[in-house]
Amino acid sequence: MRLTMSERRSITRIEALRYQKARKKEKKMILDHFTYQTEYNRCYASYLLRDYGKKVKLRLNESQSLIITTDRRIKAKRIKTKTYDDKVLIALKNIWYIADCICGKRLAPLLEEIIPSLERFKEINLDISTRSKLLEISPATIDRLLAQERKKLTLKCRSKTKPGSLLKHQIPIKTFSEWDDTKPGFVQIDLVGHDGGYLSDDYLQTLDVSDVATAWTETQAVRNKAQIWVLQALQNIKKKLPFRLLGIDSDNGSEFINAHLWRYCIENQITFTRSRPYKKNDLCFVEQKNYSVVRKTVGYYRYDTEQELTLINQLYAHLRLYTNFFQPVMKLVEKTRIGSKVTKKYDYPLSPYKRVLKSSQIPQENKTELSKLYLNLNPAELKRKITNCQNKLLQLAQLKTKIRKKNLTQAENLGYTLPAEKGFYDGLNL
């Protein structure tokens, strides 16, 4: 049975007194017994017993001296100068907030790209030493330095998809395992509902479109799930894509499985496929964007007014530039399973913009236009515009909550029971 450290210290204190007074043969027996009990290395054990509790006399001057009792267990603290000082930490925090608080593995490669952009627009002013340290910093060091800051930022949702049976037999099923598209233009689409937990009446929806090869993401808010609005939003997004739309993969909701979208895909020579029912992982590329792009930006409040529709689409106009040009993405390259252990390998973090530039299947004209647009983008300014729109949405949500509580109180005073979903916006002038 292994001894605890406190037990070892007690034995050391007792045996050291005997060891220091014993003769040579007795020391050997004490040392053998001590190493057997504590399981210390013999060399370390003799060193510990020999010097434990010894007194050292230091002569300060002719009349004064100082006696020090040694304890080999106590070691001098190593004094190490900080490589990354406060200047580096302050600059790193500012850049981290501008980059939407992403992890170190994504932020480290982004620093080489975002620092020149921020300096070009005079958002940051770094001295030579701080700049060089930021460019050399490792992902692990970034996470360690920002650990306390990340703790300060210490927000799921049910699916509202209704099955669409129309044309199901004509639209082939495509599963997650079949997605091996290295060619840009094959996208996955999904709707994100902004009901806020109140399912009655119409509420806004966000059409989320994500390219599989480049992770380029486009979003647009629509009034509801009506086929006309969804198709119109998809047509608008198609014009914004930096490549030709070649294929669409959707879930089995009636907003997608309908004659309008089916006819549109045939006319524009777009491959249209659908996922298996109740298999969300078939749409994993767009599902992860539903949170990281949509939910993380607009939250889980209820939005159902024209003012909110306009405001959210203004937010998305800034968000598409911020996400696609300044948010690095790590794509899964390999996944191996050994027993219960799963090991995943990811590629080098690159923004969707960089992945578009690297693709040999996109025309050079499109790449040139994107490069010109990139030079005029200020990530800090985009972040401020996004935050401004978010604050306005939050104010509208809080205002509606107050009015709903007021209406509920008035109804109770009159003796009526007002359903939670009804009268939510009575008296609200937006």
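That was protein one. Protein two is written in the same sequence-then-structure order:
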Amino acid sequence: MKNAWISIGIFIVMLGGMFYSLNYLNKSCEKIENDSARLETLLNDEKWKEAYDLSNKLYYDWEEKAQIMPVFVNHMEIDALNNEILKLTQYVKTKSKDEALASAHSVKFYVKNIQSLQKVNIQNIF
């Protein structure tokens, strides 16, 4: 009977960890996606100083969040998003509007892709 309680306890801890990690992932990705959308608006309005500040903030926020995510997200997805955010900061710094807009859109795509890969559905199970 003692083994059954240990197994049930471990199962409950695992479920709690899963819910925590999915919640953390969704909140982090939502913040990155919102910042990217706001950055696109700033780029369209050609507010380069504000856009550069926001791109740096986006980078440092991502660096902080990306320390934990590889535990439960594919490392390749994290690296791709990290590279795209790094490129974005440089495109904004050099005021390359077309490249910066494309990069900001790619950041949103990678974030949505990370979120969709972590959803519990039949496609992700098989």
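Residues 2-44 form the longest helix (43 residues). Keep this in mind for the problem set.
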